[in-house]
Amino acid sequence: MLYLFKSLNMLQESIDLCENYHSLVKGYESEDQAKLSDIRNYYMSDTLLNMDDLGTYCHEIVDKAVF
């Protein structure tokens, strides 16, 4: 779904999926463990860095989510 959202330029939806990655993908014991996923981090970083209008909320996410 992340690939699809990225290809359709659905930035906010991609961010929402990345923020809820732990509840969508099985195999993670905790939310913190899911945040270590390279797939999640790639799509979160790529989406945030491609946004033209970064509001305060997105700047907070960029500070803690872009790797």
Describe the SSE topology.
Elements: H1 2-7, H2 11-19, H3 21-24, H4 31-34, H5 38-49, H6 56-65
Number of DSSP strand runs? 0
Structural class by SSE content: mainly alpha
N-to-C SSE series?
A: HHHHHH
Count of discrete alpha- or pi-helical segments spanning 4 or more residues: 6
Radius of gyration from the alpha-carbon trace, in angstroms: 11 Å
Please describe the biggest sheet, giving its number of strands, its sense, and whether it closes into a barrel.
none
Oligomeric state of the chains?
Answer: single chain
How would you sum up the global shape? globular
Low-confidence stretches: none
Number of domains: 1
* Proportion of residues in β-strands: under 5%
Gap between N and C termini: 21 Å
Mean pLDDT: 81
The percent of residues in helical segments reads: 55-70%
